[in-house]
Amino acid sequence: MLCNDGNYFLTHDQIIGLTYNILSSREEMNVDCIIYFTINQASAIENSNLDWHLWVPAYNCDPEDNTMGVFVNELGRRLNLFIIDRFGIAVSEHNEIGDKEAGTDIIKKLDYIPKEIIYKKNNS
Questions:
Q1: Helix/strand/coil for 48
Q2: Segment 26-41, tens digit of pLDDT
Q3: Global confidence as pTM
Q4: Phi and psi angles of residue 9, each rounded to the nearest 5 degrees, phi first
Q5: Are 56 and 16 in contact (CB under 8 A)?
Q6: Rounded to the nearest 5 degrees, what angle is found at the Cα of 104, between the Cα atoms of 49 and 34?
Q7: Beta bridge partners of residue 34, listed in sequence order
Q8: Rounded to an integer, what distance in angstroms lies between the CA atom of residue 43 and that of residue 107?
Q9: CB atoms within 10 A of CB 18
Q10: SS (H, E, C) 42-59
């Protein structure tokens, strides 16, 4: 699990790509799943007024066996429930994108919302 909790230097796409390149270049590593996610670092999506947080799983396992996918997706849902319960931040919209290319295109278009703006919203 890789949490981006304040890195504004690299884009989401660059962090995911860098992580993939590092892990795929190592023959001795056996990684079945990587989850890239954000908690305190919100992003903006084109034509949306909402602050978005990411939960991006990438799998390297048998596509016929969806055990890992079911577990990871449930983990993401429960994290959302925890955030709602703990911080009172309701999730007003949720998107699950099953198509890798469509998901990659969306991630490439994400812009960080500057932390000064986020903190002002939270303190209002």
A1: coil
A2: 777 677 888 999 887 7
A3: 0.79
A4: -75, -45
A5: yes
A6: 105
A7: 58
A8: 10
A9: 11
A10: CEECCCCCCCECCEEEEE
